[in-house]
Structures are given as C-alpha cells and as structure tokens.
Amino acid sequence: MSIQVVTSNPTGNLIASPVSQATGQNIVGILAETIATTDSDYATAGKLKGVWIPIDANCEFTGPVGSGTFTLADVGRTCALVTGGKSVAVDTNGNACTITKFISSTRLQAKFNMPPIQTA
User: Strand, coil or helix: what is 74?
Assistant: First the structure.
C-alpha cells in the first residue's frame, strides 16, 4: 500500500491532505487502510479508518517522490505534498514535511513538521 497523509479539517473529520495545510487543517498521520469505493461508508464524511499517528516530532516516514527531480541536495528541504497526500512534491516549497534522507530518485525519508499547527 502506498502512503496517504491525512489532515483534520475545520469540522474535525480526517481528509486526504492538500498540498499545504491551511488554518484548521493539521497533519494527523498516515492512513493505515485503503479507502475503496466499495466501502459501505465511502460517500460519507467521518469514515472509520485506522491512522498511524506520529508520537513525537522525530518520527519519520519513507515515501514516494510525487513530483520534481529528487537528488541528495534536497535533504533538509521543507516541501509540500502532492494533492491527495500520497507523495512528496520535492520541487515545491511547503510546510508539510522536511526531507531527512535520500533513498533513491523516487523514494525518500522525511518527517512531518510538528507541531502540526498552521496559521494563516
């Protein structure tokens, strides 16, 4: 399964992470289950899915590069997520995560920027 980052929205429901987090959209974690169109609650807000939640600011995740050319020089860069929260946009400055390790041109290791509170 690929990663999918989820955030809270102003109503408290978890949603697929947008490119950057606006007020009221705080990174919560990584979706632990796939959301499928065959799920009985697919069309409803507040789906019942597990989420892996980082326990501290040093938790890291391994994930795919979604856009941009990723090189060793990108380690330490703060980036945005690709729409839908399934990969990192290494070519887009953002507030979602900081790259901590180069694995390959298509895979990276990063950490969420915590605390996950964004202001307008």
Answer: helix
Mean pLDDT by 10 residues, the chain (120 residues): 62 63 62 72 68 74 88 91 81 85 94 58
Q: Can you name the residues that pair with 29 across neighbouring β-strands?
A: 6
73 token code pair: 């020089």
DSSP state of 58: T
Give the total number of structural domains in the chain: 1
Per the document, the length of the chain is 120
* 81, part of any domain: yes
Contact 20, 95 (CB under 8 A): yes
DSSP 107: E
User: What range defines the domain where residue 23 resides?
Assistant: 5-112
pLDDT in tens, 78-91: 888 887 777 888 98
Cβ atoms of 28 and 73 closer than 8 Å: no
Strand pairing of 88-93 and 78-81? antiparallel
Amino acid at the residue 8: S
Q: Is 94 within a domain?
A: yes
Domain assignment of residue 58, yes or no: yes
